[in-house]
Amino acid sequence: MLSFEEARKRVVELKDALNYHSYRYYVLDDPIISDSEYDLLSRELADLERHYPELLSEDSPTGRVGLKPAGSLKEAVHDYRLYSLDNTYSEEEVTLFDKGIKEALGCSEARYICDLKIDGLSVTLKYQDGLLALGATRGDGFVGEDVTNNIRAIRSIPLKLRRDISIEVRGEIYLPKDVFQELNRERAKRELQPFANPRNAAAGTLRQLDPAEVSRRRLSVFFYEVVEPLKYGIKTHEELLNFLPELGLRVEPNYRVADKVEEVLEYWKEWSAKRDALNYAIDGVVVKVDDFGQRQELGYTSRAPRWAIAFKFPAEQISTKLIGVTLQVGRLGNITPVAELQPVRLAGTTVKRASMHNFDFISDRDIRLNDIVIVEKAGEIIPQIVRSIPDRRTGEEREIVAPVRCPVCGGDVGREKEEEVALKCLNPYCSAKVSRRIVFFASRNAMDIEGLGEKLINRLVESDLIRRPSDIYSLDKERLLGLGEGIGEKLADNIMDAINDSRKRPLHKLIAGLGIPGVGAKLARDLANYFGSLSALSKAEADELMKVTGIGEELATKIIEFFSVAENVEETAILDELIEFEQEHSEAEKPLRGMKIVVTGTLRNYTRKEIQERISSLGGEVSSSVSKSTSFVLAGESPGSKESKARSLGVRVLNEEEFEEMLKN
Hints:
37% of the residues lie in helices and 20% in strands. With 665 residues, the protein is of the alpha+beta class.
């Protein structure tokens, strides 16, 4: 056996060698040793680390799957928001996108980078001094899940970069098609349900609690973004795609620079035709302005960058027979017709059911029972009927008639407002409405009550143990055990623990869980930040609501209407007592209330996350782009184009000292 000093030197040599060969294999696609030779080096390193445990380090290639399974995944709050992308299937809309970019920039031509849109799962990774420190899922763009241990188990992700650099990068985790097929063959042998498609398999795998299982499923990754690229001297996306491999990070190799929109359309047509030749699923092309300075100038909408668009491939369509219609009742009482189909393969999955939207849709398109219909996947996810084929009718077809009674409770059916499309159950105590409302309240995007899923909630509602969300907090272990089959001591204890844990959720989670029409997770955060308490929100007038970004007159009216319903007023008051979030703040504690603030440059006394949290805690809203509605810009060192744009628009610019002085006054 080697001496300690000899072992220390050999460990360094082996780690360097393994990292280098991983780089050649995954990034350069040019291995110079065989898999068996790599395994021999890895086993030698593992043996030395077992004999000398003090030599084991975080960046060791042997540490990818040695961690114990986690009990659950924790939240990860993003320092920088992960935006969605606007998308289109239309060449005309891409041409209009190009026209809008050139008008906004005041130029005759714009340079784009086009890359393939990987059909996977978005992640963000942080490296500290070159070492992997955090891996998180996208989540809602503001908060994801900490999946660092699982990220470490993906061999195409380096634990140590080729430079000792601190950086945050974004990428897309995916499951190669050949691995997907192999996994499904194995699952079939074990009589397990096969994965629906590679994307679902990748998402489910990354949320596994056991890193060893993640390693066995052989996920892979492509990287495409660096947070604050100008900080690293990167001025264009093309430069970025050359920079990432230098760090040891894989990029999808088929990107292309386009100097004209015609070249963008040609790239899209080319890959639309040959996408099946790749060993990973793609569902379109992402078109981005190449220059990062121009991106800063263009900025963002409330949900997406103005400088990028996803140009999706045409949805796959297929014909099959409509053999039945099932009626579903949603949490707001909407009665939705669902098509029952002769099973058919579509975009990699077997489709048996499809959306028909509403009864006006059925009537307008003359869709009948026993029709041959065209089905496609909306956004390649949700199957939907597009139209029927009247020429293939045999005389057996029958009209689909809207119900006159609720299919669940037998209550009255109608439209709450004349202009509404949706047909609704008008019985407020319909068990389907009650169940769906409570399921939504307990879901991950709302109060996140683990273990309280749809099946259990249905049983609780059917047993008349709960009739509204607040009843969850009156449950006890004995009542859960009283449900009988499937509910044991341990499960009952876990559910009660989860219910008690949910009492301390932040205010925005409760607002999201109320199910206010039009209020999603992002808007719930903004409302919580602006109003500070459920009581203040419930009493707000329209003009006050419309001070929150994203709320117009129509949505403000919906929020006011929600809080004017007696049942909702009572439920809100009960929940306000039960949930232990921070209560209403005074105006003095929220000096930035109603202000939209842009932060640019490097601050001396705050990290980007710290200043965003401070502004939010004081009632302000952090915005990513400067406009006439910006209250002020907080500028640090090297502020870039946002400062000059603010001055050109007459928007106030403050340095750190002026910002602190303003808060004191």
